[in-house]
Write a structure and sequence with these properties.
single chain; 203 residues; 2 domains; two-stranded parallel ribbon; 8 helices; 16% strand
Length: 203
């Protein structure tokens, strides 16, 4: 979306979505160093800048003005960010985050209630840090673990608005398999938020 081009804007937008979705803390016994919305905003920034957890922690530590955008008094340790990702980005919280993002986009006028053209496709994801390309390149070294190939992998059906490029639905699954398995669920999910005049399925 055009409103989130800079790291500062990405952080602000992620923080707002987090505030609309999460309670400040997961339980009354939680440590009060960071709120859940703050940690989610940090994770959004991590993906935007394509950083690992250590580099994100270092960036926030070295950029106090950036940390102030979401009222961080100190930078989270990289293990704190990693644990937050494991907790906040599971299926149900992620679905709620997407729903709130769509509602906010509609309220801001970045997404129309009737989408003139939507596109849907399935995509496979890497299961580990080592890509399948890397595994194949290293296959001749004689090391067994580098000969490993992935028979099953994470897969998702993604439906988006072609005008704004905003994701309207994301249906997780496992591959390999035909994309048609995701399409009905993704369409139903998107139609709970917007009307769709025409759809394009990619193959």
């Amino acid at each position: 979306m055009s409103t989130t081009k800079s790291p500062r804007r990405v952080l602000q937008y992620g923080y707002l979505i987090g505030l609309l979705t999460f309670r400040p803390y997961s339980s009354k016994y939680s440590r009060k160093d960071f709120t859940q919305p703050q940690l989610f905003a940090c994770l959004v920034l991590k993906e935007f800048l394509q950083l690992d957890y250590r580099k994100l922690s270092a960036l926030l530590r070295d950029s106090p003005d950036l940390a102030k955008v979401i009222d961080l008094e100190k930078a989270p340790h990289f293990t704190t960010l990693q644990k937050a990702a494991d907790r906040l980005l599971t299926f149900r919280p992620a679905r709620r985050l997407l729903d709130q993002t769509i509602r906010l986009a509609k309220w801001q006028g970045n997404l129309r209630s009737k989408v003139s053209l939507a596109a849907i496709d399935g995509t496979g994801l890497e299961t580990r840090h080592a890509s399948s390309y890397y595994v194949k390149r290293r296959a001749n070294t004689g090391k067994y673990w580098q000969r490993t190939t992935y028979q099953r992998f994470p897969k998702a059906g993604i439906l988006c608005d072609c005008r704004s490029h905003l994701i309207l639905a994301a249906v997780p699954g496992r591959g390999p398999g035909p994309d048609i398995h995701h399409f009905r669920a993704a369409l139903d999910q998107a139609l709970s938020h917007v009307q769709i005049a025409a759809g394009l399925g990619l193959n």
